[in-house]
């Protein structure tokens, strides 16, 4: 009887793990889709974003997941002994929990913030900023690095966008960025252009 009960428990756990796996795959697809197709182009920095949009939602998701899986975690830690094994399981489940929390709670918070930020920015006038280029980067993901309000920012771009600048001195170039003020210290970018200081008279 006990053996049959244990086998049933293992079977239910495997079904639950499969369901969780499918949920994670769905969340990852949603994350990638949003990142490449819908994520707004923003510049700026504010510690409140890190706290309220990234850290708190992720921690809330981690706590919720721990409560939801408390029986599973309790069983794992009580039936497996040894400091090394406990350390391994702690790191493993913590990393899994953080990833799941960010892809679920974190992404809901981020998308909600992006929508509110977009609405706020659309109500404000366009502003133009001249930003010093610090690097034209051609790697796995090409980018233009620049300074905005004395902080490093970057635009991810296609290689064709910067191929003529790869071997140029970035100190000779700046970006003219047209943007609208959004929430906190973030700006929603409308458009930008690379300009040469010598030819533009700067």
Describe what you observe in this structure.
The chain crosses the membrane at residues 21-37, 49-68, 83-105. Keywords: Membrane, Transmembrane, Transmembrane helix. By secondary structure, the protein is α+β, with helices and mostly antiparallel strands. It folds into 2 domains: 2-122; 126-200, OB fold (Dihydrolipoamide Acetyltransferase, E2P) (Beta Barrel), CATH 2.40.50. The protein has helices at residues 2-38, 47-68, 70-79, 83-122, 159-162, 197-200, and strands at 42-44, 126-137, 143-148, 151-156, 173-181, 186-196. The chain has a 6-stranded antiparallel β-sheet. The protein is elongated, with a radius of gyration of 24 Å. The relative contact order is 0.13. Residues 1-5 have low confidence and may be disordered.
Write the topology of this structure.
Layout: H1 2-38, E1 42-44, H2 47-68, H3 70-79, H4 83-122, E2 126-137, E3 143-148, E4 151-156, H5 159-162, E5 173-181, E6 186-196, H6 197-200
Antiparallel strand pairs: 1-6, 2-3, 2-5, 3-4, 5-6
Helix pairs in contact: 1-4, 2-4
């Amino acid at each position: 009887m006990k053996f049959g009960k244990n086998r049933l428990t293992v079977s239910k756990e495997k079904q639950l793990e499969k369901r969780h796996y499918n949920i994670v795959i769905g969340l990852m697809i949603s994350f990638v889709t949003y990142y490449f197709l819908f994520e707004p182009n923003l510049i700026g920095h504010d510690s409140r974003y890190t706290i309220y949009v990234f850290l708190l939602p992720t921690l809330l998701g981690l706590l919720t997941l721990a409560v939801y899986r408390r029986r599973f975690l309790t069983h794992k830690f009580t039936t497996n002994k040894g400091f090394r094994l406990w350390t391994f399981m702690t790191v493993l489940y913590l990393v899994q929990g953080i990833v799941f929390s960010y892809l679920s709670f974190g992404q809901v918070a981020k998308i909600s913030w992006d929508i509110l930020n977009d609405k706020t920015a659309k109500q404000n006038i366009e502003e133009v900023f001249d930003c010093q280029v610090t690097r034209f980067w051609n790697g796995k993901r090409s980018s233009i690095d620049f300074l905005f309000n004395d902080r490093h920012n970057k635009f991810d771009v296609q290689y064709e966008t910067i191929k003529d600048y790869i071997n140029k001195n970035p100190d000779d170039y700046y970006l003219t960025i047209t943007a609208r003020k959004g929430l906190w210290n973030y700006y929603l970018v409308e458009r930008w252009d690379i300009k040469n200081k010598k030819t533009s008279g700067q």
